[in-house]
Amino acid sequence: MRNVYRRPPVHRKFYQLNQRIEASELRVIDAQNKQVGVMSRQEALQLGYDKQMDLVLIAATAKPPVAKLIDFSKFLYQEAKKEKAARKGIKKSVTKDIQISLFIGKADLERLINKGKEFLHEGNQLRVNLMLRGREMGKKPMALVLVARVLGQLGDINIVKEPRVEGRVIRAVVAKKKGTIKPVEPIKSVEIS
């Protein structure tokens, strides 16, 4: 038997419209957002039928419930457009990684710092990882100094998570300071002592 991929269910908002409205009395609003008044369900349905519009329940908990006369397909289209615009404006903050080693070369360190500046300029968080291998475990103070030097080269940053030793890895998480819009400037050289 073949596995069939199924999309996860899309949760759509359910609207009570026309004959599915159960309330006996409704406060009706027309398409121009003007109140028509309080009327029975049958009168409201007849009004919608005369204007060739749908009667949609928009506030079921109000006393009496509020229904609006609208073109339902156009309403759904506008709601979908609003949701899409709302999702478009939201930027997810991503955490990007750069991996350095204790005895990294000068040019490699410059390249990684420049890449880290680019990540921060894009609005992402940056995780700086320094992996200690073998005998490097005895040089933790030297490794912490190197991580601090890298963080100092990144410019205006907020430290989200201080550099600390987690097993064989020294890890720090940083983000761009709010309000800094300075473009990324590549560094010329890094002093490694």
Automatic annotation (TrEMBL):
InterPro entries according to UniProt: T_IF-3_C_sf, T_IF-3_N_sf, Translation_initiation_fac3_CS, Translation_initiation_fac_3, Translation_initiation_fac_3_C, Translation_initiation_fac_3_N
Record organism: Candidatus Roizmanbacteria bacterium CG2_30_33_16
Keyword Transcription: no
Residues covered by the Translation initiation factor 3 C-terminal domain: 95-177
Compartmental location: Cytoplasm
GO terms of molecular function: ribosome binding; translation initiation factor activity
Subunit record text: Monomer.
One Gene Ontology CC term in the entry: cytoplasm
UniProt xrefs under Pfam families: IF3_C (PF00707), IF3_N (PF05198)
Cited function: IF-3 binds to the 30S ribosomal subunit and shifts the equilibrium between 70S ribosomes and their 50S and 30S subunits in favor of the free subunits, thus enhancing the availability of 30S subunits on which protein synthesis initiation begins.
Family: Belongs to the IF-3 family.
UniProt GO BP: ribosome disassembly
Domain of life the protein comes from: Bacteria
Keywords: Initiation factor, Protein biosynthesis
UniProt-listed SUPFAM superfamilies: Translation initiation factor IF3, C-terminal domain, Translation initiation factor IF3, N-terminal domain
Domain Translation initiation factor 3 N-terminal: start-end pairs: 18-86
Protein name in UniProt: Translation initiation factor IF-3
Major location category of this protein: cytoplasm
Keyword Protein biosynthesis: yes
